[in-house]
What does this fold into?
Amino acid sequence: MEKFADRLTRMSFSQTFVMSNRVREMKAAGHNVISLTLGEPDFDVPKDIKAAAFEAINQNFSHYSPVPGFLDLREAVCEKLQRDNHLTYLPTQICVSNGAKQAILNVLAALLNDGDEVILPAPYWVSYHEMVKMMGGKSVFIETSIDTDFKMTAAQLEAAITPRTKILLYSSPCNPSGSFYSYEELEKIADVVARYPQITIISDEIYEYINYDGKHTSIAEFPQVYEQTAVINGMSKAFAMTGWRIGYSACPTWLAKACEKIQGQMTSGANTVAQKASVKALKTDPATYKYMIERFKSRRDLVYGLMKEIPGFKVNYPEAAFYFFPDISYYLGKTLNGTLINDADDFAMFLLENAYVGSVGGVSFGSPNCIRFSYAASEQDLTEAMTRIKNCLQTIDVQ
Ligand code: PMP
Ligand code: GLU
It folds into this structure.
């Protein structure tokens, strides 16, 4: 007999993993599928970072670390925040976690009472809404569309605020849209939030380096909201270290202490070897790893050229992260080769089964008109995937 808590019943499986697992099953069944599902760099961890991990093993960093992370790593995080973001933090304000995912969850767990509202500009990263539900909160969505580059305005934000609003949570650069907020846009958002001291901003900046414009702004740079902001970042995207599971938060001291309290009862300090390797990564000049960003940029241009030619796709020109999030509403409500397409998830499934290309439907990102493609894949796979989709959609029966 299944006896689940309400908490579990309200949640869904992560759609990114659902689709990547489906691709894996199809591959195992012998189908030649190209997966553009999961967002993770396809590069190897850079050699100098690996060498630091080997050294940590040989030096027997095999015991528990302090819950919020080794001091040298927290110092390296502070140096990085100063160097790249002009942000001043003390090591006591940093909590190193098992990925940025846990860093976000710590903050939500620390702040949310049942029924508290969290504002999520849509599209949002899949896990945000699920994490809010897990912690008993209520998501309040702000709708955006491809026509506004998937970005909320300060006026939309202000209209969504109620006496129960506790948190504003967004990613910039954004997964899934590939947009990012400019300095001027963030300043306006900061001005709004500063008028509501009960609100904490969770600013997820994990795609900071994958920004082709090169002008990343952290909202914590605005003094009016510095004390109201939790900055989230991590090693997964910038250093291709997704499996090493290191992320971190930088918060006001009271909130950092709360994250430590929660993490100390949940998982303890993050993996020690990966922490030591992260010190190396963060202390190295970011230009050393720029070759990955350059490759992402040229892939972005490659895919943009090809995707524009696909019938029924309305394509944005993403300036950051490594995703395309085309609007496919042309196909909604239509029957493709006898299959009714109600929403973007149906369309993503149709492409998987008919073009053998894996993507993630936009429903769980809060945008049921769009689908997400990760372009962190080889040029060959990207070209083949776009060609397959174009050929498929050109030859099917659309009613
Ligand atoms: N935030 C965003 C926007 C993401 O896309 C991801 C995906 N990995 C994460 C947080 C979590 O990253 P990780 O836990 O691997 O550090
Ligand atoms: N963040 C990546 C994505 O959006 C990895 C999967 C996940 O953590 O959900 O695809």
In short: The chain has a mean pLDDT of 97. The longest strand covers residues 165-171. The longest helix spans residues 290-307.
